[in-house]
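User: Please go through the entry that follows and flag anything odd:
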Amino acid sequence: MTDAALYFTAPETVEVREATVGPPADDELLVETRASAISAGTELLVYRDQTPADLPADEALDALDGDLSYPLRYGYAASGVVREVGAEVDSEWVGRSVFAFVPHQTRFRATPDSVVALPPETTPAAGSLLPSVETATNIVLDAAPRLGERVVVFGAGVIGLCVVRLLADFPLESLVVVDPIERRRTLAAALGADRTTTPAELGAVDLAGESAVGGADLAVELSGQPSALDDAIGVVGYDARIVVGSWYGTKREPIDLGGRFHRDRIDIVSSQVSTISPELRGRWDRDRRMEAALDRIDAIPAAELITHRIPFERAPEAYELLDSEPDAAVQVILEYS
């Protein structure tokens, strides 16, 4: 069987190239990929050459070695079926559906402890959304929403929508989602947002002269746009907190930290899925967080989030779509025949 892998070869250029996978080693599984999800955030930064070239691809994922300079294999959201096992691996793995943090390619080898066994009822496409659910789980853990709080989420991409779905289970006073794209706002409302609005409408006032969105206890920034930090500062109240889950890559914007940010003691913290918050490490590790994500993956309506399913051999079309028509796509999945 001839295998193939996706390579980022230059700005706005990806290629499907022949790859050699080979049989599993004694302690490995051989997995046939069925679906892999494209991250419209991180992967588009790589596609557009908006990442620091000397930055490691991801030191927490063994499958992503080297840095982010071209050419490179990238991607971290593959689900498939185990087809073969090595001599030291239990044969019951054969036929099981699994997830792995590996780049986009037709088959891959992995050890049992580096894959996640998916629930039998989880489809390959839904399984490929597991990293988004895990990232959303990490963001909510870092945000630590409290009873009766007013929360604003900036960005209703896939991560933002997963965060909204998780936050909707909390007894909040209000959950507001800010996104410029109507389709995403509609999805956010369906997933539990009490209200949605656009960035342009944030400064609007009601009949009493009050801001339409303001005095929030917590803001979660997931838009991927550095300028949204100014909007987040503008909507939170005194001693509030802002959790930034976006990775901006090399994108830069001037942020106004000279006004009420300082006097109002507003906290801005980052949330990154490669690590667990120091406040939680005594009780939480990556395995526990993954279990929490697995418990909630079926609560995420994959069929509604996945707007495009594109054959792997036509992968360049998927990136062109995400790059040029962001309003048209929410989650794009590569499917493997």
Observations:
- The radius of gyration is 21 Å.
- Residues 130-143 form the longest helix (14 residues).
- The longest strand covers residues 29-37.
- The chain has two domains: 3-129+300-335, 132-270.
